[in-house]
């Protein structure tokens, strides 16, 4: 009897069908097992020193440029593989930039015990305390920051702001000069020094600093507003509107109108406030408040030097502002 190779023997159809069913079931069970299995995360790979430095620099640049969401995304992606104090410092800086002053202060405080980061942590803590209005605590932290690292430009700038609040003009000048000497491109330091000059009624000096800051950052609304105010306080109303756009004109009219009111130029101020209200479809409450003040107090010039400018900021919507 001749035997055929197994692969050539005729197969029983029932056995073939049964085998196919078993194969299909086995395949389906295997696939289901794959689908049901929990995803196994890839092991975290530590960053190299070069990668870590590049990541931290990118986060710093994003925070400085106001790209806070991008900075947060980078921190979120990096945390699982690098929870170092350096990254924690960036978390604190992001909280500060985002307006979470209480959270930032707590994070900076924790980092002040780290020898390598203590000065920068004290700098951030000092700025946070300054924004909270706690001037003694702010001064102590800023002094500690500069004692640890005298190259910290933001700490010098913060010291200038503190001196302005105390009307210590000599100390303010020294602090801003140090900040600008260490970073001639610091828009923040030049804008704050310009604001400091506005507080003293030295509008030509303020204009020089603010114009230089605007060259470095033409997009800074704070610098633009203060420059308009400084020019208008010198009676150069038309020049104060240089660079105004349709979107900013209502606010610019209010800024220049406030300066005209401060100078006792009632008719000009009233004209600008009325135009500001006509242009702003949401009704410009700032211009309305200033116009009411103007009508109530007549033509007398406002006191604009020393503390009066900051007092007017709260009560009369003075446009002069400083970055922190």
Q: First CA to last CA: what distance?
A: 102 Å
pLDDT < 50 runs, ≥5 residues: 1-42, 302-318
Largest sheet entry: none
Using only CA atoms, what is the Rg? 32 Å
Mean pLDDT over all positions: 82
**Which overall shape is indicated by the principal axes computed on the Cα atoms?**
elongated
Helix content: 55-70%
Specify the structural class: mainly alpha
The proportion of residues in beta strands is under 5%
Question: How many DSSP-defined strands?
Answer: 0
Give helix and strand order, one letter per element, not per position. Answer: HHHHHHHHHHHHHHHHH
Count every helix, treating DSSP H or I runs of 4 or more residues as helices: 17
What key phrases describe this protein's structure?
about 325 residues; mainly alpha; elongated; disordered N terminus
């Amino acid at each position: 009897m001749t035997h055929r190779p197994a692969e050539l023997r005729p197969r029983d159809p029932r056995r073939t069908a049964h085998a196919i069913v078993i194969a299909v079931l086995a395949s389906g069970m295997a696939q289901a097992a794959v689908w049901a299995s929990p995803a196994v995360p890839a092991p975290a790979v530590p960053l190299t020193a070069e990668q870590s430095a590049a990541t931290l620099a990118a986060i710093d640049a994003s925070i400085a440029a106001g790209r806070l969401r991008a900075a947060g995304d980078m921190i979120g992606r990096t945390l699982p593989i690098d929870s170092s104090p350096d990254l924690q410092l960036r978390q604190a800086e992001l909280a500060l930039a985002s307006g979470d002053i209480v959270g930032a202060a707590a994070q900076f405080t924790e980092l002040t015990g780290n020898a390598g980061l203590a000065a920068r942590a004290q700098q951030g803590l000092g700025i946070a305390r300054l924004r909270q209005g706690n001037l003694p605590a702010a001064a102590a932290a800023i002094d500690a920051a500069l004692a640890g690292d005298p190259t910290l430009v933001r700490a010098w700038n913060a010291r200038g702001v503190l001196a302005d609040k105390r009307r210590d003009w000599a100390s303010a000048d020294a602090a801003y000069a140090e900040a600008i000497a260490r970073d001639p491109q610091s828009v923040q330091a030049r804008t704050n020094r310009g604001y400091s000059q506005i507080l003293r009624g030295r509008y030509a000096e303020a204009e020089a600093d603010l114009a230089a800051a605007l060259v470095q950052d033409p997009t800074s609304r704070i610098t633009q507003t203060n420059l308009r105010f400084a020019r208008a306080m010198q009676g150069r109303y038309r020049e104060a509107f240089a660079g105004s756009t349709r979107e900013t004109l209502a606010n610019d009219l209010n800024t220049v109108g406030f300066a005209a009111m401060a100078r006792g130029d009632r008719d000009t101020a009233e004209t600008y406030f009325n135009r500001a209200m006509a242009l702003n479809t949401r009704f410009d409450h700032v211009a309305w408040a200033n116009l009411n003040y103007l009508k109530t107090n007549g033509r007398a010039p406002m006191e604009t030097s020393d503390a009066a400018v900051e007092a007017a900021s709260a009560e009369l919507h003075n446009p002069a502002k400083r970055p922190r």
